């Protein structure tokens, strides 16, 4: 507790204010709140990482329909899991969700280890805060959370300086979160903290007039709400370029390749990618001799957290193709298969109809 700044409110008063606000204004009818099993709470928490509630709800409902429990998720193929994840982004979350389900099934007899924060945090893709949220939300036991919403609330209340990703700053925020977390009503308290950050103490446009801590928030008193939390030190995003081969057969099907399990779009299906036109042409000569290139489409940019990817789609008519192995498949845009697709690839495939190749293509 030595790293903790002086508290504005005693814990009991903080909890009373927050819970009174939550009882009247909090979110009580989210799909994962009925029922609050460890499995349902876990899936929702992973989906909600860096994604808005309104976006997550339809994905969560489709996911629960197909995978109602951890056993069905563990038994599924990764392709199907990533197919249901397509569009949510941050696909490592989907891969880790599948890995964690298999760990729970194989090493924990199909039951989440909610008795142990350390064991929960050790599951793929979870970590300390998510583990705390799952335990508190599904069991009502005391566990502390510190997600992005909670960090924002605490940094503004206490004007905690520094980027929250720095270890020293994060330690101070964990100390504050520990200080304020009660021993009772943990389900409501953790949801209230997340709701306060998501609905009032928003990143760009905080609604301070409706906040239960308006008169005790230091950042608000200074008129500096938008200065907290401090952003990550910015670096100019580097730009990479790639050519994506849109190789179609006479039936309009497109050749896809499965990405390696790690790295960019890990485990997803994508168009064959090349650093330059020479590499693409060499691949066609070796793999699909006799194929004819069409004029390239206009490039577009897909932005990741750490770089920008400039993509140039390169359509081609198939000549003949060497045998398609298990890492490649023919994809029919008019009858899409249930496989996980990278978001820009999904968009390109959806746009193919107006550009369908003629039936004269091929041998």
UniProtKB/TrEMBL annotation:
Binds 1 [4Fe-4S] cluster. Its EC number is 3.2.2.31. GO terms for molecular function: purine-specific mismatch base pair DNA N-glycosylase activity. Belongs to the Nth/MutY family. Pfam families: HhH-GPD, NUDIX_4. It comes from Halomonas rhizosphaerae. It catalyses: Hydrolyzes free adenine bases from 7,8-dihydro-8-oxoguanine:adenine mismatched double-stranded DNA, leaving an apurinic site. SUPFAM superfamilies: DNA-glycosylase (SSF48150), Nudix (SSF55811). This is Adenine DNA glycosylase. The gene is mutY. InterPro entries: A/G_AdeGlyc_MutY, DNA_glycosylase, HhH-GPD_domain, HhH_base_excis_C, MIG/MutY, MutY_C, NUDIX_hydrolase-like_dom_sf. Adenine glycosylase active on G-A mispairs. MutY also corrects error-prone DNA synthesis past GO lesions which are due to the oxidatively damaged form of guanine: 7,8-dihydro-8-oxoguanine (8-oxo-dGTP). Its cofactor is [4Fe-4S] cluster. Residues 47-199 form the HhH-GPD domain. Keywords: 4Fe-4S, DNA damage, DNA repair, Glycosidase, Hydrolase, Iron, Iron-sulfur, Metal-binding.
